[in-house]
Amino acid sequence: MTTAWNAERARVIVDNHRSLPGALLPILHALQEEFGYIDGQATPLLAESLNLSGADIHGVISFYHDFRRTRPGRHVVKVCVAEACQAQGSDSLVDGLASTLGLSLGETTADDAFTIEAVYCLGNCALGPSVMVDGRLIGRMTVSRLGALMAEAEGVQP
Amino acid sequence: MSGPVTVYVPCDAAALSMGADEVAQAIAAEAEARHIPLRLIRNGSRGMLWLEPLVEVVTERGRVAYGPVSPDAVADLFDAGFLTGKPHPLGHGPTEEIFYLKHQNRLTFARCGVIDPVSVEDYRAHGGFAGLERALSLSPAQIVEEVTQSGLRGRGGAGFPTGVKWNTVLNAPADRKYICCNADEGDSGTFADRIIMEGDPFLLIEGMTIAALAVGATQGYVYIRSEYPHAVATLREAIRRAYAQDWLGHHIHGSDRDFHLDVRVGAGAYVCGEETAMLESLEGKRGMVRAKPPLPALEGLFGQPTVINNVLTLTSVPVVLAKGAAFYRDFGAGRSHGTQPFQLAGNIKQGGLVELAFGVSLHDLIYRFGGGTASGRPLRAVQVGGPLGAYLPADQLDTPADYEAMAARGAMLGHGGIVVFDDTVRMARQARFAMDFCAEESCGKCTPCRIGAVRGREVLDKIIAGQDVADNLALLEDLCTVMADGSLCAMGGLTPLPVRSALRHFPEDFAVGAKR
Fold first, then answer.
1. Nearest CA in chain A to B301
2. Per-residue pLDDT, B416
3. 3-class SS of residue B336
4. Taking the domains of chain A in order of start, what are their residue ranges?
5. Contact: A25, B352; criterion CB under 8 Å
């Protein structure tokens, strides 16, 4: 479980990594692991610590799909939509989420329970379609199994 | 038999995705309930992914395989006597005798799935570090010569001769040089890098260390995509243990040579698999492609001479050093020497990893090994070489899988991924996806890629909607020419490959009135 944004904690994380060569990506990963996203307040902190401009920091955060700029739902569901999973019907998973939750890829449910994200390949291409639920990789996914997994993640009976 | 029975349950991500942890727990619990002493080892994957979780038991006949095992089947396996290799509906007999495995040429993947991935002792016992030990006895130029003579070419997609690249770095004067391993295996349909990093991580460490000795580098980075958390964890643990046993760090294995190695994690940008974008990312910047020249071999990471090789290239190096250039060179066809780990993916019955000498036909890979489509429907299209690779129709599967033969068919082998589609595929949609993917993943540095992909997606939307189809097809062709000829790197430059191959081989899918 991630913690709420905390400037002091963020500064400790930055200080722990800033001496690495090419430190910005490791720092951003560490911040996101702690807080679940990169808060806007991180930009001036990083700019000052790494002697870069705010624009440089913003440019890096916004370049990479991984870095979120808003807090995600309590559970993150990544659905692989690359070719090998397409060949095994990943479209039906995406459609299924749209019809059951009314969610498109990249959106979060109104109750903040789930964020659904597209991912291009999880490296499980012989056992697709694949999803990752809160970091757990699962293959041969179906709409009904995904529904059950998500209910389980929220601790409710499917 | 005396002593506890040894049982292997893979910890590979593909096996985990099918419940390997739950199976391992069920086996341990069942053994305890029956008071049977058991030695449970978590190995990598054998690459027969449709059989995962593939449980192996060490018997007098060697290792015997059962799969795919579910937790529910565990009690039944015990009842049937699987601990002594007795028959069971999930049984496949001795693992090494399974057709899929028996008919491969496993050089790079010889140990994968056999050993405990993070045990230095296991690695050594199965011939590990023999290549590095030999390299420590050679001069840098001799190592480079051995690799050059082996005919090893870059396995990341471009097929550039590895020895030539290393020689450039060796001869570049600098105080500091780097070895960067490109483990940003972003192509859909590929997982060989992941499987070897999870199943035999010391092999990559050994290959990178040999590269460092060859060119005089002291620092290495493995750039692994963030979608591979299990590979990141396994490689980090292996690096920790390699340091602890003097295979990394100062005075490697008692020599006067130093090499330091770190893992860096990508952040979900496909273009960072392009080598110069990867360097930018390693430097903590946006993954923007660099113009070449200067070559990374001369001005690479932090401006220093840098070897950039793919995981499969670097993991091919130890066997070249251990068994000699001639041994490796004897595998293959034409100018494609050695073996290639092919990956069977998508709508395929027996998906997995098949390491074979170059020159095997796509047909043999898909039918003899893969068993045809998973759905049982007729195969219609095969995409070879990832999202930037061509779509081939069913009647071109006689193409030999090597660099030159694929190029002659207007296709490319890329990283060896083969994605199978059955007859429900809509090729105009696949062409649209190619443009869509490029639009999503373009670094934005050059106009043909940044703008071309967006326009390509729009034009394909119009074609799919049946709007001015002939005019829009002409426009699409023109756009493909601009992207192919004018893009800075393979992202924009090769996106026309899947689009044009879909147009050429499946024109009916683009015609007015086609089922969309």
1. A22
2. 93
3. strand
4. 7-63, 75-153
5. no
pLDDT of B403 > 90? The answer is: no
Q: Which residue of A has its CA nearest to B374?
A: A88
- State which amino acid sits at residue A127: L
B387–A83 CB contact, under 8 Å: yes
Q: Taking Cα atoms as reference points, which of B47, B127, B157, B172 lies closest to residue B407?
A: B157
Among B17, B269, B443, select the one facing A137 at the smallest CB separation. B17
Q: B184-218 pLDDT, tens per residue?
A: 999 999 999 999 999 999 999 999 999 999 999 99
Q: Which of A88-102, B229-243, B278-292 has the least mean pLDDT?
A: A88-102
**Residue A31, min C-alpha distance to chain B (Å):** 13
Mean of pLDDT values over B104-131: 97
Comparing alpha-carbon positions, the chain B residue that sits nearest to A121 is B188
Closest CA to B187 of A101, A146, A123, A98: A123
State how far the Cα of B242 lies from the Cα of B222, in Å rounded to an integer. Answer: 15
Q: Do B345 and A139 touch (CB under 8 A)?
A: no
Left if phi > 0, otherwise alpha if psi is -120 to 50, otherwise beta: which for B482? alpha
Nearest to A83 among B266, B346, B348 (CB): B346
Class of the domain covering A75-153: alpha beta
Q: What is the average per-residue pLDDT within B258-271? A: 98
* Interchain pair B13, A21: CB under 8 A: no
A129 at B interface, C-beta within 8 A: no
Q: Do B348 and A126 touch (CB under 8 A)?
A: yes
Q: Which amino acid is residue A82, in one-letter code?
A: A
Q: Where are the alpha helices (DSSP H) in A64-116?
A: 83-86, 90-101
Q: Say if A37 is an interface residue toward chain B (CB within 8 Å).
A: no
Q: Do B188 and A60 touch (CB under 8 A)?
A: no
Task: List, in order of start, the domains of chain B with CATH numbers.
Answer: 5-102 (3.40.30.10), 120-328 (3.40.50.11540), 331-422 (3.10.20.600), 427-509 (1.20.1440.230)
For the record, the structure tokens of B223 come out as: 């750039």
Kindly report, residue by residue over B253-263, the tens digit of the pLDDT: 999 999 999 99
**What does the pLDDT look like over A87-113, one tens digit per residue?**
999 999 999 999 988 889 999 999 999
The reported pLDDT for the residue numbered A158 is 46
